[in-house]
Design a protein that fits this description.
Number of helices: 7
Shape: elongated
């Protein structure tokens, strides 16, 4: 009987607090949802930015509002929240230290999504790996290599290091070297190379291909050949043109050098 009376008395004494708590809880739930929606709307209004980041930021904002509301509710019932906040802070610090590698990848992921040095579908060389970007998350970047391996790289290993995006520009130059023997008519060799480049439909005429002598090597004259192509045709041209030049040199009677040692007899 005394317990029931005490319960009724407590309810009567705290009825306003209960109403206050319900109102705060409902308001916090509504406000947290509104704030998250606003953050997501901001992400959709900037197509250049990845929505993954705004989903993450929206969730953080939502939980921040709910935690703040929880502290207000506890304070309303006379519970000292100072020590609770200190405990939560210490726990957060401990978790942060334990997950510092993960948090580093998270921070790097945020920077990669914000500044977008590459996007899904780009051919990129980063963290010692060269391949096609398959996915970008807050923690990792997924690549597909040319031998069809799926490589998952922590973002912390990419951000802050050299990133080469081979897909950034629509038109790319293909660096090739054609070597001829000393004594070869260079004009004839250039004309032979020009035939190959003109015959390849993937090579652009504007900008014009660059064909000039680059190096006088020990056993050869090295000619730099740089045709320009659309990014999608880069690898087709890179691996097709050397064979075509070799075959054209053979047709035109141009000697392809090989390393040799000349021995002179002493008299």
């Amino acid at each position: 009987m005394d317990t029931a009376l005490n319960s009724v008395g407590w309810l009567q004494a705290n009825v306003m607090n209960i109403v206050y708590v319900i109102a705060i809880a409902l308001a916090a739930i509504w406000l947290s949802g509104v704030i998250k929606s606003l953050v997501l709307r901001m992400g959709k209004s900037h197509p250049a930015l990845d929505e993954t980041l705004f989903h993450f930021l929206g969730s953080i904002a939502r939980y921040a509002v709910l935690i703040f509301a929880g502290i207000i509710i506890l304070d309303r019932f006379g519970i000292q929240t100072t020590s609770l906040v200190a405990i939560l802070g210490a726990a957060g610090l401990a978790v942060g230290l334990a997950l510092q590698g993960t948090l580093s990848s998270l921070a790097a992921g945020v920077m990669l999504i914000l500044f977008r040095p590459y996007k899904v579908g780009d051919f990129v060389e980063a963290a010692g790996t060269f391949g096609k970007i398959d996915a970008i998350t807050l923690f990792t970047t997924d690549m597909i290599t040319f031998d069809n391996q799926h490589i998952i790289i922590p973002n912390s290993e990419i951000w802050g290091t050299k990133i080469t995006n081979h897909s950034h520009h629509a038109v790319r130059g293909v660096e090739l070297v054609a070597s001829v023997a000393y004594g070869t008519d260079i004009k004839k060799a250039k004309a032979s190379i020009a035939k190959v480049l003109k015959a390849n439909k993937q090579i652009l005429s504007d900008p014009a291909p660059f064909v000039e002598v680059e190096t006088l090597a020990a056993s050869s004259v090295d000619i730099l050949v740089r045709p320009f192509v659309n990014g999608a045709d880069y690898f087709d041209v890179k691996y097709a043109v050397p064979q075509a030049i070799y075959e054209q040199f053979a047709k035109d009677g141009i000697e392809i050098p090989f390393q040799q040692i000349v021995i002179h007899n002493a008299k």
